[in-house]
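Below is a filled-in request sheet from our internal design queue. Each sheet records the structural input a requester submitted and the sequence that came back. We keep these sheets so that new team members can see what a complete request looks like end to end.

REQUESTER: design group, bay 2
PRIORITY: normal
MODE: inverse folding
CHAIN LENGTH: 135
BACKBONE (tokenized):
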């Protein structure tokens, strides 16, 4: 049981780092495109769209990873040993923060209306799970 908690924490840390790294890389690419745009108009729409898609995909992947693990841990809690229940709950709290942060980044990248509604529904479920931990 403790092993699961440790694996999820490591996985979450790895995903957070990847999210941070790719977000900073996409930002750097967009800034370069902006600079190039000031110098010349050789930037293809395809190149811009690809970068924007990647900028959306990275936080979206982090959100989905966090959400999936929150649900897994929530289902695990009733079967969890009392010795490590706080570890599992802390993992859920960390993943909830990760999901909320990723959601904010997704919004910056202007997702579709359907995607936004889907993520908002998942956020409500996350909030419900997290609020149940505090009782």
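RETURNED SEQUENCE:
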């Amino acid at each position: 049981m403790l092993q699961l908690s440790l694996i999820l924490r490591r996985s979450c840390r790895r995903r957070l780092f990847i999210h941070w790294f790719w977000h900073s890389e996409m930002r750097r690419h967009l800034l370069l495109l902006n600079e190039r745009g000031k110098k010349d108009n050789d930037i293809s729409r395809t190149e811009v769209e690809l970068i924007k898609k990647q900028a959306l995909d990275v936080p979206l992947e982090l959100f989905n990873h966090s959400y999936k693990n929150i649900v897994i841990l929530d289902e695990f809690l009733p079967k969890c040993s009392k010795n490590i229940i706080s570890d599992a709950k802390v993992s859920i709290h960390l993943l909830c923060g990760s999901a909320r942060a990723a959601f904010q980044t997704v919004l910056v990248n202007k997702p579709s209306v359907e995607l936004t509604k889907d993520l908002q529904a998942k956020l409500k479920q996350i909030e419900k799970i997290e609020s149940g931990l505090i009782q």
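SHEET NOTES:
- The longest helix spans residues 2-39.
- The two ends are 23 Å apart (CA to CA).
FILED BY: M.R.
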